[in-house]
Amino acid sequence: MSRSQWKKPYIAHFLQKKCVKSNKEDKIVLWCRNSTIPAYAVGLTFEIHNGKTFTSVSINEKMVGLKFGEFAATRKPYFFKKKN
User: Fold this and answer.
1) Strand, coil or helix: what is 74?
2) Which helix (H) or strand (E) holds 19?
3) For position 23, what pLDDT does the model report?
């Protein structure tokens, strides 16, 4: 179920301040995975927390409107073991 149209997308209150202050080279450390990626974050690099470590993600135009948490996997991928 998607978010209602009359509601605005959720963006953490401190995120805009950090985006405006930072340079393109700076990495912004982020714990809030549920925030929507705004248009003014394009070109910036974020360190998104996945519960254990931080994953580095650079934002492009295709990512606007999605959530930050979609780009930092929280679970270890499973690989099938090869038979000898």
Assistant:
1) coil
2) helix 15-21
3) 83
Structure tokens at 17: 């301040």
* Edge-first strand listing for the sheet containing 27-30: 27-30, 45-49, 54-58
Q: Are 57 and 35 in contact (CB under 8 A)?
A: no
How confident is the model over 21-76, as pLDDT tens digits? 888 888 999 999 999 999 999 999 999 999 999 999 999 999 999 999 999 999 98
What residue ranges in 1-84 does DSSP mark as E strands? 27-30, 45-49, 54-58
Read off the tokens for 78. Answer: 């499973």
**Adjacent-strand bridge partners of 67:** 36
In the chain, what are the domains? 15-68 (3.30.860.10)
